[in-house]
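Slide 14.
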Amino acid sequence: MNPSAVVSIDVDTLASIYKGTGCRRKGGYSYAEMQIGLENILHFFDSYHCPLTLFMVGNDLNFEQNIQPAKDMLAGGHEIANHTMHHTQGFRFLESDQKKAEIQAMEEICLKKLRVKPVGFRSPGWNISDDATPILKELGYTYDSSVFPTSFMPLLKLSHWLSMRSRPSIDRSTMGQNSYMLAPQQPYRTLQNRLDKKGEDGIVEFPITVSPVFHLPFTATFYLLFGWKVYSDILHALIRREIPVHFQFHLSDFVDYTLAEFSDQIPESRQGVYVPKALQMTYAQKESAFRKIMDEIAQHYTFRRMDRWSTEI
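Slide 15: predicted structure.
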């Protein structure tokens, strides 16, 4: 039997990420990427019979044009999970009652607009702390997916801090507690008050997959940066060891932000915010790259949703 793989997508809109930075469009963001991106996602992953876990921001569901695309994802057999209400990058620095409010507010609007209650959570920027665990348990969540056990964490934290120089300090942090560098690299149940330690009384954690030995992040963002040659080597190392795979995307990976309709909504790096490569490539370029790696994953793994897999861990 093939090992399991999950594909997760952070459905972050320009409004969620940049909150007005670089937006020159009269009337604010168009949210056109929600419909375009989710339609592309449905089409792309349907060919792999791959059920997805989509981490959605509650505030994006306040805009009616975003509701039907989200419903279409549910109708396609995909899971919607909680990515907070306002996509606060510095989530781990919020007080416990503020964390709880962010999680609950997203849950409430998801129930109201989509008639589903999320059972999974991911912090924006994987920026979580241990005190979120009892909150998630109290609210009935079965899993979290915010831990990123990469040895490159200090470098990535520094890079994010420097690239987000125009933002408040709380928004310049990322990737959670430093101890998460050493967390288990395959899905596990946590301790009650430690997300980075195995236990019996916590929740299930789906960490971001990293490469064997050097622990290079195995995500779409880094794949676009380093290319197929590097990532085919990583994937084949994972396959040889029969290591479960969690491959993570963003909504921006399935939108062509080079189109004129987005030209007045995209910030520039000189404005002191990080602009990923996915916003600078055409969708045709990205789709071609993603086909290579997804073809290989599909050949060696069985795709699952996080909510269903979490019940077995």
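Speaker note: The chain has nine helices and ten strands.
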